[in-house]
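can u do me a favor
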């Protein structure tokens, strides 16, 4: 039994860096994809409504940039730290490789601790604040936890007491910084985030563009023929659609709120309509059209014959 445990220990010590590098590579690719999709406004990254809701929440943005960008930087840093000693030939330059080994292990432990603690915070927010499931977020949390475990058990640490002290200090600093970072998302009403506060009647961000006569005429025409726009208050593409119409024209639309915590929610209607697979979805003359539509497209789909000098 003792021999088997020593062999297992040698195995994890030999492959730990490769395992961390593999997980970090997958994490870096995933966060890079989400970052590019967010910055380009692709909107095709989310497979579920909950995922889109999470990635559109205030928690998904830090300093005006996507949180996934910082996730990519963290994974990329972990990847570099993991493979740096492996790139040095031990037969040709053993002292350099040993120095890199001794320098990078503590840095990897600190980085993994930060990622694990931050992921735990986000999982708490996901479960109790936003109350939505995001497969990307859960996967990233599992990646962070896996790297932490591999680094903890994959190196024969000399002083476990010192390691525990470093981990505790890192956790305290990470939590303090995280609470300070997301302080604007919390209010005095039990700490609920701005995006989900006053859930029974949330209207989403205001429409700030002005409507021209053409936008108003098209909106009234769409309502007149029974056309409907299905959306959710937290959906950024729904807001983009409303911005194309402008504030006044938007009020003339027959808008159906599909989110349970939105104003005048009609969730049952949305769920009973299988053609609604994403937001916004337009129902025009019995046909369904998914995604943000230009006003010219809506005019053509609805046989609109009024003015078409749209401002947006």
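np, heres the sequence
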């Amino acid at each position: 039994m003792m021999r088997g445990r020593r062999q297992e220990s040698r195995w994890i010590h030999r492959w730990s860096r490769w395992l961390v590098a593999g997980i970090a590579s997958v994490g870096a690719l995933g966060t890079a994809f989400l970052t590019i999709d967010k910055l380009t406004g692709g909107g095709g990254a989310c497979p579920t409504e909950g995922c889109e809701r999470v990635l559109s929440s205030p928690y998904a943005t830090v300093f005006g940039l996507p949180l996934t960008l910082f996730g990519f930087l963290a994974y990329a840093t972990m990847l570099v730290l993991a493979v740096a000693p492996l790139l040095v030939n031990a037969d040709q330059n053993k002292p350099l490789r040993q120095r890199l080994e001794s320098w990078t292990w503590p840095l990897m432990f600190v980085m993994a601790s930060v990622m694990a603690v931050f992921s735990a915070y986000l999982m708490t927010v996901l479960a109790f604040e936003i109350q939505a499931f995001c497969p990307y977020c859960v996967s990233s949390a599992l990646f962070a936890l896996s790297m932490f475990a591999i680094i903890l058990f994959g190196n024969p640490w000399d002083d476990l007491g010192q390691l525990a002290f470093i981990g505790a200090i890192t956790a305290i600093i990470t939590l303090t910084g995280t609470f300070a970072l997301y302080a604007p998302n919390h209010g005095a009403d039990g700490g609920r985030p701005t995006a989900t506060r006053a859930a029974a009647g949330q209207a989403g961000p205001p429409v700030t563009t002005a409507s021209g006569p053409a936008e108003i005429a098209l909106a009234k025409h769409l309502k007149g023929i029974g056309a409907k726009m299905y959306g959710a208050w937290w959906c950024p593409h729904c807001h983009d659609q409303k911005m194309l119409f402008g504030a006044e024209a938007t009020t003339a639309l027959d808008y159906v709120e599909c989110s349970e915590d939105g104003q005048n929610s009609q969730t049952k209607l949305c769920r009973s309509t299988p053609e609604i697979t994403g937001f916004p979805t337009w129902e025009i003359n019995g046909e369904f059209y998914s995604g943000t539509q230009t006003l010219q497209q809506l005019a053509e789909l609805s046989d609109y014959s009024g003015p078409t000098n749209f401002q947006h």
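Confidence is low (pLDDT under 50) at residues 1-8, 187-199. hope that helps!!
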